[in-house]
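hi! just following up on the protien thing from before. the input was this:
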Amino acid sequence: MAFVDRRDAGRRLAAALARFKTDSPVVLALPRGGVAVAAEVAAALSTPLDLVLVRKIGVPFQPELAMGAVVDGPEAVTVRNEDVIAMAGVSSEAFASVRDRELAEIERRRARYLGNRTRPELKGRTVILIDDGIATGATFRAAIRAVRAQRPVRLVLAVPVAPPDTLKELKKEVDEAVCLEVHAAFGAIGSFYDDFRQVSDEEVIETLARFPVEKAPQVPSTPLVARDWNVVVTAHRGGGRTARRILRRFGRVERSGHYNVFLLTAAEPSKVLDGLELRAGSEPVLMDVLSRVAPAQTGFDYQTTEDFERELMAAVAPWLDRLRDKSFHVRLHRRGKGLAADSQAEEARLGEHLLATLAKAGGRARIDFEDPDLILAIDAVDGRAGVGLWTREDLGAYRFLKPG
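and the predicted 3d structure came back as:
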């Protein structure tokens, strides 16, 4: 099925992305063709629209053949296609020359398209990355890596059309992929559109003007009500007093009643990890004192194991889409009353329950203890549980966020 034009593709894509509206996402477009598609999605979801400035690095004697891509950001991200570079016999100097030329074009586009425009904050947000189609995936892969570095809570790839092999590879680098049509016999992206005329600089500028960036909305979260802690902190042996002093910078600190475990009530629990990371370089004592820091993204009360399992499944229901087609495992830290003594058996039971729930909804996932995409971390302390869903990238970025 061909698309009439990019606006038609955008409207169809918006319908497929409607479920993300409640996440208050940010829509990012790859210019120029992706802007016309993304504008329809941003309008339908009532979201900010911004750009990811990325350029293909073409082989010098065959510019349409991508040997890599470069993308704008706090630090430019370069992706190399080593197979193409080797096949074409491109030297390091020749690659760098083409890359620098494309970086200059990115600079021009940034000045022309964005000027002094306010850019939306991506950290902690759902981000939907859009183009008018994907062929080799080189530019899209570079864009994914640049956006991922800004730590969105969820990254969604969304395109009207792509070939199956490229889409399969890119799915590994995002949390979810939405593609309206997948064609093995691909050719050029334009062959799937009746009207694929070039998008001008002026059209990009006019489109962005319709979507001014306002202050990012606060994403609602489930409040922690009883014993209103929202971060569980474990200190190293002998470090309890210093740990309490450090944690008071972020909120109220209470002893949990369990050895070297503290309960922190922070105004913004998601920022505790950021604050500790910023201080760790200049305050090495943090590494000697703090063992594990676990912010709760949601929470609930329980009295029995049955209560716990029922309330947990209700709490994680909004995250089931994030588990779809991913690997994960459940990690339970149990302290005090209300749960059976065997944490590993409980973890296994909860993991199987999540797989069964996904299967009923037509989805699938798999349990992986070696290198999972996601970890569902649960801290249960005397009848109160805090829950967080953390990605592999989160665990790599925050030294105190440990699954074990």
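The domain at 6-209 is CATH 3.40.50.2020 (Rossmann fold).
The radius of gyration is 23 Å.
cheers
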